[in-house]
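Morning run. Coffee first, then this:
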Amino acid sequence: MIRIQEMNQGKVSPRLPVPVGIKRPPYADNGNFPPWAERSQVHNDEVR
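And here it is:
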């Protein structure tokens, strides 16, 4: 038997500042996101 749990509203924590050393993505200022990839993207040490 599958049990469905009722969802309760959670709390949203305050926004935290991003450390200066983290580079902003290109879409951060203009909202233009890059095209969505059709395949899954795997990011690991070999891909960098």
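The chain has a mean pLDDT of 85. Good start to the day.
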